[in-house]
Amino acid sequence: MNKIPWQDRPKNCADVLWRHSENPIIGRYDIPTANSIFNSAVVPFRDGFAGVFRCDNKAVQMNIHTGFSEDGVQWDISHEPIRMQAGNTQMIDSDYKYDPRVAFIEDRYWITWCNGYHGPTIGIAYTFDFKEFFQCENAFLPFNRNGVLFPKKIDGKYAMLSRPSDNGHTPFGDIYLSYSPDMKYWGEHRCVMKVAPFNDSAWQCAKIGAGPVPIWTKEGWLVFYHGVIKTCNGFRYSVGSAILDENRPDKVRYRTQPYLMAPAEIYEQVGDVPNVIFPCATLHSLEEDKLALYYGAADTVTALAFGHISEIIAFTKQNSL
Ligand code: BMA
Q1: Both ends of the chain: CA-CA distance in Å?
Q2: Which of 10, 91, 178, 276 has the most CB atoms within 10 Å of its CB?
Q3: Is residue 150 part of a domain?
């Protein structure tokens, strides 16, 4: 595998996460048909990296496209959306696709996304090579968003975080956990994390949703999530972290009271939807204690931030709600 993208913390910065100096690393018009390229997921693949990118086209139809990169920063994104073949079902209807996540589990890459089927729900597909994709049954009834798979089975079952929602710009939302023996039938639904009380941590008081695939650490599962506050000007999306129990990931051990990062740069504050930081993936190395966080900014472009895993864990423990 190539080295994950990395920049050292700038000298005048004391934050747990810091931004890539060339942000945004993917611009809204980086493929000819696009209106915006954001909320996208990447993974190590062969010698380099592959990804599934949310590209809204100029008719503002939402779809997902593959991309490949040698260094994780310069991306070659397909001009055409992914075409799905039937996986564990013939029913692969999809009015739209957005906000993909990618998890490698055992022998293949699993893609989850917000799939339009009489409203938003969680779509699932797998691929071995990022060329052929096989779409499976939707995980849940509508309405649901932010379906994020754990990278290994727990107690012999696949496990997924998700965020039951409504058909619109949902004003509520907590994170749940569900299990499946076969990636087709999902159950054993458990509540993991609810929004925080306004007085305790207002940045995450309206809704929360899982971001990247959880990272296994000695302390438990490290999870990044977005938290939302409703302001007089609309929603504001920031990012926090939590540590879930290794064997019972419905148990939250720690969760940040302050955010790790909130919209502050111009490309996060200005765009099609202002004031949005929406993380969907990490590339990380536990040995090197490095993490690169990919996030959509202002529903328009894709950006990158960095952090040391040990510092993020220590911060999460020391600043827990
Ligand atoms: C959510 C989704 C995301 C988007 C966010 C902010 O409901 O639509 O794709 O980034 O709102 O607009």
Answers
A1: 37
A2: 276
A3: yes
Q: Is the CB of 208 under 6 A from ligand 1?
A: no
* 28 touches 298 (CB < 8 A): no
Residue pLDDT, tens place only, 166-197: 999 999 999 999 999 999 999 999 999 999 99
Say what percent of the chain tops pLDDT 90: 99
Any domain includes 124: yes
Q: Is the whole-model pTM more than 0.90?
A: yes
Q: Which of 273, 275, 294 to probe ligand 1 with, by most ligand atoms within 8 A of CB?
A: 273
317: CA distance to ligand 1 center in Å? Answer: 28
Q: Taking the mean position of all CA atoms in its chain, how far away is CA 283?
A: 12
Nearest to 223 by CA among 172, 273, 284, 267: 284
On whether residue 102 sits in a domain, the answer given is yes
Q: Residue 174's CB: how many other CB atoms inside 10 A?
A: 14
Q: How many separate domains does the chain show?
A: 1
Residue 234 lies in a domain: yes
Report the 10 Å Cβ neighbour count for 77.
20
pLDDT single digits (tens) 22-39: 999 999 999 999 999 999
Give the total residue count for the chain. Answer: 321
- Spatial distance between the Cα atoms of 53 and 145, rounded to a whole number of angstroms: 16
Q: Could you tell me the CATH number of the domain that includes residue 311?
A: 2.115.10.20
